[in-house]
Design a protein that fits this description.
The protein is α/β, with parallel strands linked by helices. It is 47% helix and 15% strand. Strand 2, helix 2 and strand 3 form a beta-alpha-beta unit. The longest helix has 17 residues. The N and C termini lie close together (9 Å). The mean pLDDT is 94.
């Protein structure tokens, strides 16, 4: 069983160094940092983490081809892989239309954009021509290796793409039970490409909040709930409209406290709130389904460092046994 930690890019850089070092001590295999618009830069954060750790893998979750060109993605990935001594994983996808609209970008043909992006980056790492680019388009330095590419996904077609073309997947489950819906789609993509699912590192990505305070989870739901996939809303018995008042409170009124109060019990089922025993109980179902990579994401709790240590003390040993 593999274990990873996912963080949003909303903390001071020094905090990521402390958290990553704690995660490395706790036995986590990977740490991922998002690159959401108008927050801190994930590549800069990961550079700081790379030089402060020695074992744990690092990765972006996610960058997208609309705000970062595939050529620059390859440059960044190769450089971070060099800096980290071969520990970098490139997480990419199409980005969330709800956030890209802030900068007047409409992500047209997202599946095509992601597929072409993956193929272009792989070609650059393999020293091959990129279809549609000039022959002068090649890396001017030798990368350590072909950096593994993980696709972040919530929609059916993007989930299938994980199985077809990616080294790994970051399917956002929210809630954990959503894995039953996600897995057949990834399997279908793998079968179409003649691949075995064992070749693909599929991380079961959940949100968890360690402790009695559900405030951090409420805040994440308030910020991201309206941008989630219809597949996730349906799993919870919700619709896009259920989040409209919350989106208004956060994005327009800039009143997070009001937005948090509007989060319902049904919405809280998106993640896990409680002790590590509660996390284990709800994740046992995933283990029974054959999950080989559990990924724990924000909010994690009011004390992230303590949550990381608790997961390392209780949850990781439980499932590794």
């Amino acid at each position: 069983m593999k274990f990873s930690l996912r963080l949003n890019n909303d903390l001071p850089v020094a905090e990521y160094v402390r958290i990553a070092q704690a995660a490395e001590r706790a036995g986590f295999d990977q740490i991922w940092v998002s690159d959401d618009l108008f927050l801190r830069s994930a590549p800069v954060i990961l550079s700081a983490v790379a030089v402060a750790t020695s074992r744990i893998e690092i990765g972006t979750c996610i960058v997208n081809p609309y705000t970062l060109h595939p050529a620059e993605m390859a440059m960044m990935a190769a450089t971070l892989d060099e800096l980290s001594g071969g520990r970098f994983n490139l997480g990419l996808s199409s980005g969330a239309a709800e956030f890209l609209k802030w900068i007047d970008i409409t992500p047209e043909k997202p599946l095509t954009a992601v597929t072409e992006c993956v193929r272009a980056i792989n070609a650059l790492f393999n020293g091959e021509p990129v279809p549609g680019w000039e022959t002068d388009a090649y890396l001017r330095f030798q990368p350590r290796r072909r950096v593994p590419i993980y696709i972040g996904a919530m929609s059916p077609n993007m989930l299938k793409a994980i199985g077809e073309i990616a080294d790994g997947g970051l399917p956002l489950l929210f809630p954990p039970e959503h894995y039953e819906t996600v897995l057949p789609l990834i399997q279908a993509g793998a079968a179409k490409a003649g691949r075995d699912l064992s070749e693909i590192d599929v991380a079961a990505c959940i949100w968890c909040c360690i402790g009695d305070d559900d405030g951090p989870l409420r805040e994440k739901i308030a910020y991201y709930g309206h941008a989630l996939s219809p597949l996730i809303w349906e799993r919870l018995g919700l619709t896009r409209e259920d989040f409209s008042g919350i989106e208004q409170a956060v994005m327009t009124e800039r009143d997070m406290e009001k937005a948090k109060r509007l989060v319902t019990p049904a919405m809280l089922r998106i993640g896990i709130v409680g002790s590590t025993a509660d996390v284990i109980a709800r994740m046992e179902k995933l283990a029974a389904l054959g999950v080989t990579h559990m990924s724990f994401g924000p909010p994690l709790g009011s004390d992230v460092l303590a949550a990381v240590e608790a997961l390392g003390r209780d949850v990781i040993p439980h499932f590794r046994r």
